[in-house]
Design brief:
eight-stranded mixed sheet; Hypothetical Protein Ta0175, Chain: A, domain 2; alpha/beta; Rossmann fold; globular; 16% strand
Length: 241
């Protein structure tokens, strides 16, 4: 069971998706029940992912949660439940151009990236990258040096400066009047570090990345979606009193 501090209170939990809420084998069925019970007991559940909105929306609907969606690593914010329009917070044309350039520099790199790029508005994602540091080093020594290269374990994201999960969450929190310090966040990869730094309590469900472990307030004993289930069950026990 995850040990949660006794002196903190939360209004919301924000969950990463890939490697956290689910993996290539899907979601743990019990997780759906626990998430819905959290909502019934007054804990708002939101999602913050590198996925595009069309990829996230079915997951949001299946979980029957009342929170918002932050997609594309903070580039897209969708909170229609509270009457807010979809907001694109960045222009993805420069990352896309950087990907095209990388295709001329690194043998075997496909600049078209992952299929969901067809819906991507604020960043660009590469896949099947054996050495993401090679991509990072190429970008750093080029005219595209302002572009950030962020691995997530499922893809390598090319993003513009100031565009991360924290920037998207700030907008979403402000729209709802949520104090970030009253939010708990759960993730597993380097793209979750800005989110951990923003909220009151960060939980990593992976020890694979040292910088993620350092940024988190706690690391679950179990990893991946099993670790997330541990956290959610501990939080449900807390809110039930």
């Amino acid at each position: 069971m995850v040990e949660l501090p006794d002196d903190l209170e939360w209004d919301m939990i924000v969950l990463d998706i890939d490697g956290t809420l689910l993996d290539r084998d899907g979601i743990i069925p019990e997780m759906i029940h626990v998430v819905r019970e959290l909502e019934k007991n007054g804990m708002v559940v939101s999602l913050a992912s590198g996925r595009t909105l069309p990829n996230i929306t079915p997951i949001h609907q299946s979980l029957c949660i009342s929170g918002f969606i932050v997609g594309e690593n903070g580039g897209m914010v969708w909170d229609s439940a509270k009457g807010h329009p979809i907001r694109a917070l960045a222009d993805g044309s420069r990352p896309k151009e950087a990907a095209k350039w990388l295709g001329t520099q690194i043998e075997g790199l496909n600049p078209e990236g992952i299929e969901s790029n067809r819906w991507r508005e604020t960043e660009w994602c590469l896949t099947e990258i054996e050495d993401w540091e090679e991509v990072r080093d190429a970008i750093e020594s080029s005219e595209w040096s302002d572009i950030s290269v962020i691995p997530t374990g499922f893809a390598v994201h090319l993003t513009i400066p100031g565009h991360d999960k924290a920037s998207g969450l700030r907008v979403a929190f402000e729209q709802r009047g949520i104090d970030p310090k009253r939010v708990i966040a759960c993730g597993d990869a380097p793209n979750d570090i800005p989110m951990f730094d923003l909220v009151g309590f960060g939980v990593s469900v992976s020890s694979h990345y040292e910088n993620v472990v350092r940024a988190a307030d706690v690391v679950t004993d179990a990893h991946g979606k099993e670790g997330s289930l541990e956290l959610l069950e501990a939080l449900l026990e807390r809110v039930r009193g």
